[in-house]
Amino acid sequence: MHERAAVGERVVDTMRNDRMEAPVTDIDRHRELLEQERVRLLGLKENLIQATRDVDHESPGDPSAGGDIADAGSELFERSRDLSIVEDLEAQLADIEHAVARLANGSYGSCEACGKPIDRARLAARPATRFCLEDQQGAEREVQLRSA
């Protein structure tokens, strides 16, 4: 439901839902930040994929073709690292799509763990974030404990 609210000297449209009330301009700003991040990540992903293709075509380290085995090992390591980065970029892109869906359903800006509002500065810095800082830190500690 849209309403108009006076804020100081200006009038701002607001969206009301069960979880939060945010100026439409904030929602538009977050949607724009998410789109900018999506474009940036897609560019990085395409560059890495292209670099991997280029290495595949050049491949001077192939030992079966008379190349150096150390060069082949280095190329394999770099290709593996690039593929790992691509997987991470795909996960970040999925987070962005999830955030866009949350914008559409009105739950964007609320922590998925505790339901409390996520700090505006955190949303500005990490527009696809799903958790408040406290719950994010708790999740990271849990991962560290499991991997130790």
What attributes characterize this protein structure?
single chain; 148 residues; mainly alpha; Four Helix Bundle (Hemerythrin (Met), subunit A); 3-stranded antiparallel β-sheet; 4 helices; 63% helix; disordered N terminus
Task: Provide a descriptive summary of the structure in words.
The chain is mainly alpha-helical. It has one domain: DksA, coiled-coil domain (Four Helix Bundle (Hemerythrin (Met), subunit A)), CATH 1.20.120. The chain has four helices and three strands. A three-stranded antiparallel sheet has the order 1-2-3. Helix 1 (24-58) packs antiparallel against helix 2. The radius of gyration is 22 Å and the shape is flat. It starts with a strand and ends with a helix. The model is unreliable at 1-19 (pLDDT under 50).
Mean pLDDT score = 80
Instruction: Note the beta-strand portion.
Output: 5-15%
- Rg calc: 22 Å
Strand line-up in the sheet with most strands? 1-2-3
CATH superfamily: DksA, coiled-coil domain
Task: Supply the CATH architecture.
Answer: Up-down Bundle
Q: Could you give the count of β-strands? A: 3
C-alpha termini separation = 48 Å
Structural class: mainly alpha
Total domain units: 1
Helix content: 55-70%
Total helical elements: 4
Name the helix and strand elements from N-terminus to C-terminus, one letter apiece: EEEHHHH
Shape: flat
Per the CATH scheme, the topology name is: Four Helix Bundle (Hemerythrin (Met), subunit A)
Describe the main β-sheet briefly: 3 strands, antiparallel
Q: Uncertain runs with pLDDT below 50, 5 residues or more?
A: 1-19
